[in-house]
């Protein structure tokens, strides 16, 4: 048994530790080895927190497996799991990913009391009337008037944006952030976009043209895959 | 085979019943056979506006529950032979009739009449569902107030989902020109822009409307009030004529006319 290939290889990188897990070993074996390796390694208690990345290679990890590994790593006080990475995902997850990548183009007037929700980005060709709500897990683009509520990154993507040809919303929501219109009557603005400013943690509205500097990677697949 | 038009609004008090009475009267004036159907069961007042309350024997609930035939329940208008009313019940409530029941009645009425105007109760519950059940077309009434435009928007959204009813048409009621001018009321173009449906007509806020409904005589009979001309124009548009929107502005003396002549906006 001793000659056998190691099930867990630990490597130090500049980002912390990387645990590479052998694809062919049994899960039981892996957990055992992980336990023994972590207990044998004498980690100084005064050391700062070390980030741990787990690379499962071509093994599919169920959420149960992930949890077991997390538990073992967490039992060490100064190890924190940063990311569990696997090359493999299920068909279901792939479909969800694909949905998140899509831009759904919808022609419709979202009227008072109506709700429109899509996975991925929403491209609405039409208006959102007062009392209407549109939401998307990704960005919200409105080729029309936004007079109601728009919610971008609804499952928690603070980098999502809302862009509208005419911006006069009752409320803007991005991920968990919310901003509302002022209590006095306002004229809307043409060609505007809303985003969360990381420094102030507030939703800001800016000219559509400035979007290229605020979110240069908006359309890239990589950004959206990370969020997926 | 006639056409059934439901007149609805979502919000109460915007003038559904007045509109039904006057558009119905105007269509009758143009020689069409018209039946008015009141579906506001429990709170009927189309009969009062038409001045026909004292002639009611049976009502729509009696017809649905087969206590009488449709023809027995119809009340003939005192001014026209071609204008009839099927009144709502005052004693039951909205659950006394079903959408299927109304649908059956409307289908029967369509055999004999050119137009059936269905007066819808306020709200979007049972009464509304009953009213739209038999309709081929819908007319949404709104006033230039934000709350009523919001409800009209909601109703249009619901109507668009209904099969068998095309895109609804819009009547903007109770327009006060001086308030629109001073910016204290929505103007017509704002409303049409938000609701994005075809405009069937505009009606000015006119004391004559209140006066005439008080006397049980629809304003559409009067030859030359603003409201009566508006209602008659709406009826002509329903018949397919293209009638331009009338100006609601008052002509204030010779200067206004001169200004108008030279195209100066006052």
From TrEMBL, chain A:
<dbReference type="InterPro" id="IPR013033">
    <property type="entry name" value="MinC"/>
</dbReference>
<dbReference type="Pfam" id="PF22642">
    <property type="entry name" value="MinC_N_1"/>
</dbReference>
<protein>
    <recommendedName>
        <fullName>Probable septum site-determining protein MinC</fullName>
    </recommendedName>
</protein>
<comment type="function">
    <text>Cell division inhibitor that blocks the formation of polar Z ring septums. Rapidly oscillates between the poles of the cell to destabilize FtsZ filaments that have formed before they mature into polar Z rings. Prevents FtsZ polymerization.</text>
</comment>
<comment type="similarity">
    <text>Belongs to the MinC family.</text>
</comment>
<dbReference type="InterPro" id="IPR016098">
    <property type="entry name" value="CAP/MinC_C"/>
</dbReference>
<feature type="domain" description="Septum site-determining protein MinC N-terminal">
    <location>
        <begin position="8"/>
        <end position="84"/>
    </location>
</feature>
<dbReference type="InterPro" id="IPR005526">
    <property type="entry name" value="Septum_form_inhib_MinC_C"/>
</dbReference>
<feature type="domain" description="Septum formation inhibitor MinC C-terminal">
    <location>
        <begin position="106"/>
        <end position="205"/>
    </location>
</feature>
<keyword id="KW-0717">Septation</keyword>
<keyword id="KW-0131">Cell cycle</keyword>
<dbReference type="InterPro" id="IPR055219">
    <property type="entry name" value="MinC_N_1"/>
</dbReference>
<keyword id="KW-0132">Cell division</keyword>
<dbReference type="Pfam" id="PF03775">
    <property type="entry name" value="MinC_C"/>
</dbReference>
<dbReference type="InterPro" id="IPR036145">
    <property type="entry name" value="MinC_C_sf"/>
</dbReference>
<comment type="subunit">
    <text>Interacts with MinD and FtsZ.</text>
</comment>
TrEMBL record, chain B:
<dbReference type="InterPro" id="IPR027417">
    <property type="entry name" value="P-loop_NTPase"/>
</dbReference>
<keyword id="KW-0132">Cell division</keyword>
<dbReference type="InterPro" id="IPR010223">
    <property type="entry name" value="MinD"/>
</dbReference>
<dbReference type="InterPro" id="IPR025669">
    <property type="entry name" value="AAA_dom"/>
</dbReference>
<protein>
    <recommendedName>
        <fullName>Septum site-determining protein MinD</fullName>
    </recommendedName>
</protein>
<dbReference type="Pfam" id="PF13614">
    <property type="entry name" value="AAA_31"/>
</dbReference>
<keyword id="KW-0067">ATP-binding</keyword>
<keyword id="KW-0547">Nucleotide-binding</keyword>
<comment type="function">
    <text>ATPase required for the correct placement of the division site. Cell division inhibitors MinC and MinD act in concert to form an inhibitor capable of blocking formation of the polar Z ring septums. Rapidly oscillates between the poles of the cell to destabilize FtsZ filaments that have formed before they mature into polar Z rings.</text>
</comment>
<keyword id="KW-0131">Cell cycle</keyword>
<keyword id="KW-0717">Septation</keyword>
<comment type="similarity">
    <text>Belongs to the ParA family. MinD subfamily.</text>
</comment>
<dbReference type="InterPro" id="IPR025501">
    <property type="entry name" value="MinD_FleN"/>
</dbReference>
<feature type="domain" description="AAA">
    <location>
        <begin position="3"/>
        <end position="156"/>
    </location>
</feature>
<dbReference type="InterPro" id="IPR050625">
    <property type="entry name" value="ParA/MinD_ATPase"/>
</dbReference>
